[in-house]
Amino acid sequence: MSGVARFCLILSLEDASFVASGWIFVVKDITLYSTLFLCLFPESYYLCEKESSVGLICEGWLDGCWFKTYVMVEDGILFLNEVDSTNAYMRLLLDGAEETVQEGLMVCAEYQSQGRGQMDNRWESARGENLLFSLLLYPTFVAPSDMFLISQAVSLGVKDMLNDYCGLSDISIKWPNDIYWRDKKIAGILVENFISGHTIESSIVGIGININQKEFFSDAPNPVSVTQITGKEFNVDECAAVVRKAILDRYIYLLNAKLEQLRGDYFSALYRREGYFPYRDAAGEFFAKIEEVLPQGTLILSDTEGRRREYSFKEVEFVI
After folding, report:
1. What is the pTM of this model?
2. What is the DSSP letter of 108?
3. Structural element, H or E, at residue 264
4. How many angstroms separate the Cα of 181 from the Cα of each of 238, 261, 280, 292?
C-alpha cells in the first residue's frame, strides 16, 4: 500500500463512515464484513469470504494492492501480501494512528522484501510458505532495565506453539532468543522496544518461523522448517492465530508478575543448557557450560578452567 498507512478500529458502520482508501482497519464484529467492505470499496475492492477453523478471512484489491485480512471476534490479525518489513509496517501504523492501536495487533506478510533479524541479519523466506509477522505490545509496567523479560516471554510462546500445535520435540531457545530444533534454527525473533524516560511505551516483536519451506538457498548455515521435520504441511494462517495466543499467554506471566517462573522456564528451555560446548569470542574458541542468564540478559559461562565469562548480545558465538 502506497503512502503512510493509517489504522483505525471499526466497531460499527457509523464508525466506518469516514474511512477512505488508504486506511488499514480491523473489524471487531464479523457480521459487518460484507456490508462494510462493499460499501467502502464498491469498485476497487472485490470481497471474498471463507471460513477457517479459527475465523473468517476476507481478501480483495485495495488501493492497487492485494489485501487479505483475518479477523478474530475479539482481536485482529492483519494479513498483507508483501511488505518491506512487518516491523516497519507496524511502526507506520502506530505513527499514522489517530487513536491508540490495540495491543495484541498482529501484522503478517506472505513475503518480506527486507525482513531482518538481530543486528540487521537478513531472514530468508519463500513467498507464502512461512510465518512472518510483527506483534504489538504495550509493556509499560516493565522497567527498561528488565526489558529482557519481554524477549523471554516471546521466545517461550514460540516454543510452546511449536511443541503443542506443531507437535515438535527437541525445541530449545538459543540465547538470547533464536528458536532451535536440535542444532538447526527454526525461528528468529527481533524485539524493538521504544522507551520514553523510564517507561517502555511500546514493543514491536518481529518473528519469522519456518513452516512449510522445503529448500533454503541463502548462506544461513543451519535453517530448518516444520515441514522438513514432520513431513507435513501446515496452514500458515492458522499457525498465526495459534502462535499469537501462545505469546500472549506468556505475556500474561509478565502482567501477573510471575517473573521467577518465566525466568525459570526460559533457563530450562535453553539450547546447550547442560554440558560443555564450543564457543567463540574475540579471543578465540573455548569450551564452556552455561551457568546462568542474568535478569538484564547477560549470558554467564564457565569454561573448562573454571573461569567465569560474561557476555552481552553478540559478544559470543555458539560454535555449531
Report:
1. 0.77
2. E
3. helix 259-268
4. 21, 23, 21, 21
The proportion of the chain whose per-residue pLDDT surpasses 70, expressed as a percent, equals: 71
Instruction: Give the confidence band of 116 by pLDDT, cuts at 50, 70, 90.
Output: low
Q: Quick check: 179 and 152 in contact, CB under 8 A?
A: no
**Residue pLDDT, tens place only, 233-246:** 999 989 998 999 99
Residue of higher predicted confidence among 59 and 187: 187
- Inter-axis angle of helices 148-164 and 236-255, nearest 10: 140
Q: Name the pairing type of β-strands 106-112 and 131-137.
A: antiparallel
Q: Range of 312's domain?
A: 277-318
**How far apart, in Å, do the first and last CA atoms of the chain sit?**
41
Q: Quick one: 95 and 150 in the same domain?
A: yes
**Tally of domains within the chain:** 2
Residues with Cβ within 8 Å of residue 128, at least 6 apart in sequence: 110, 111, 236
Type of residue found at 192: E
Phi, psi angles (nearest 5°) of residue 67: -130, 120
Looking at residue 83, which CATH number applies to its domain?
A: 3.30.930.10
Least confident of 65-69, 169-173, 182-186, 271-275: 65-69
Task: Judge if 123 and 232 occupy the same domain.
Answer: yes
